């Protein structure tokens, strides 16, 4: 990236006139506290939601929405030319329309036209506006031109309305921007990928369950990275207590049976599926409807049945020409011993294209911010990923996935 005069990456934060403008203050704080030089460009109407003194105090830089201030510096050209990243949050339907059609009536839209750096839009609006064909066409146009448009979250909107259109969590928008600033390629643009994350729970009774230690951190890192690389992302999340990754559609499940149904449904039009979740191998044959009480004698043994093997089923369906049939299927193998031997056997047994094999236990992998793994490649050489942030493993895996996807001539 191009370094600023003080060696800090230059970020332009555009703020359009939506009620979610106040959330951009938190996004601005995350940028400045992580060492970025941020210039805030609100639209004139956005200043009715959050005033200029707030943006100036939080950024440490002058703030204006007008092209007529400091005209000798040609701000509508210079700000875009010098930026390493432009992010607009919130991006209203009006702002998206202007950006898609190349209008430049104020400082923000003029900056968008002159920017030659990555551009990220984080839309926020009412559901009807987000789902309107005009907005969908504008979003498609911006994505075709290389911009990252982060799909809004679903939740409470202005007033009593609820639905898709809510600005994603600012910390999650920041993570996408961080990945974009790091130079993430746009090799998944136009693709739909499905990621499973977390760990399933198999009920014993209304209180107890059979589960595992998976936190969902690796699956969510895969989702964030795929969004930054241009993909439409669906996450099937089992018992994950993390903020939704910005730009990803999250389907929440609990058990292996629930996950199977959700993954097969999401994979109907998916180009790739990555099964990063820790799916329980077994479940109780019958769960009690009431809490099982302690008695004076030995507890009754819990009879177990096998859970569906979702990864193997996806591979079998593809082999048999059944739908869903993603072009690339990747799995994860968490092992405590004989890691590579067990991983190679699993790769052959399941029939997937890629298998991420890592050692778990004693503070490794589960619940930690870092990971180390070997990615086994069907018909190819293994790829070793040294210990580092889980985003690094995500990048390595998506690079291998992208290389196996067919590309239009």
Automatic annotation (TrEMBL):
Enzyme Commission code(s) on record: 4.1.1.36, 6.3.2.5
Keyword Nucleotide-binding: no
Keyword Flavoprotein: yes
Domain DNA/pantothenate metabolism flavoprotein C-terminal span(s) in chain numbering: 188-402
Matching InterPro entries: CoaB-like_sf, CoaBC, DNA/pantothenate-metab_flavo_C, Flavin_trans-like, Flavoprotein
CC cofactor note: Binds 1 FMN per subunit.
CC terms in the record's Gene Ontology section: phosphopantothenoylcysteine decarboxylase complex
Binding-site list for CTP: 281, 291, 308-311, 332, 346, 350
Name the record gives this protein: Coenzyme A biosynthesis bifunctional protein CoaBC
């Amino acid at each position: 990236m191009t370094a600023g005069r003080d060696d800090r990456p230059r970020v332009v934060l555009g703020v359009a006139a939506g009620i979610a403008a106040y959330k951009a203050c938190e996004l601005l704080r995350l940028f400045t506290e992580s060492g970025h030089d941020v210039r805030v460009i609100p639209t004139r109407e956005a200043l009715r939601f959050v005033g200029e003194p707030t943006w100036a105090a939080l950024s440490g830089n002058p703030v204006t929405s007008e092209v007529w201030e400091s005209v000798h510096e040609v701000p509508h050209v210079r700000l875009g030319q010098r930026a390493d990243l432009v992010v607009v949050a919130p991006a209203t339907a009006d702002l998206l329309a202007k950006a898609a059609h190349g209008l430049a009536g104020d400082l923000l839209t003029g900056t968008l036209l002159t920017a030659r750096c990555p551009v990220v839009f984080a839309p926020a609006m009412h559901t009807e506006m987000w789902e309107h064909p005009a907005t969908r066409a504008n979003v498609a146009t911006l994505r075709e031109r290389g911009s990252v448009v982060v799909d809004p979250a679903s939740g409470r909107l202005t007033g009593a309305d609820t639905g898709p259109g809510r600005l994603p969590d600012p910390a999650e928008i920041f993570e996408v921007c961080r990945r974009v600033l790091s130079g993430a390629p746009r090799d998944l643009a136009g693709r739909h990928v499905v990621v499973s994350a977390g760990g399933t729970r198999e009920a014993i009774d209304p209180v107890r369950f059979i589960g595992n230690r998976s936190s969902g951190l690796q699956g969510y890192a895969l989702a964030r990275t795929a969004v930054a690389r241009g993909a439409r992302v669906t996450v099937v999340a089992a018992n994950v207590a993390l903020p939704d990754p910005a730009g990803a559609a999250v389907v929440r499940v609990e058990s292996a049976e629930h996950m199977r149904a959700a993954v097969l449904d999401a994979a109907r039009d998916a180009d790739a599926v990555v099964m990063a979740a820790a799916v329980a191998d077994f479940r109780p044959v019958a769960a009690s409807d009431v809490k099982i009480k302690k008695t004076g004698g030995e507890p009754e043994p819990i009879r177990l049945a096998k859970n569906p093997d979702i990864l193997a089923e996806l591979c079998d369906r593809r082999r048999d020409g059944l739908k869903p049939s993603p072009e690339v299927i990747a799995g994860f193998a968490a092992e405590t011993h004989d890691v590579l031997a067990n991983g190679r056997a699993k790769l052959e047994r399941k029939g997937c294209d890629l298998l991420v094999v890592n050692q778990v236990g004693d503070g490794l992998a589960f619940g930690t911010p870092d990971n180390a793994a070997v990615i086994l490649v069907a018909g190819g050489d293994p790829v070793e990923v040294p210990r580092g942030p889980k985003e690094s493993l995500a990048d390595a895996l998506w690079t291998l996935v992208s290389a196996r996807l067919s590309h239009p001539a």
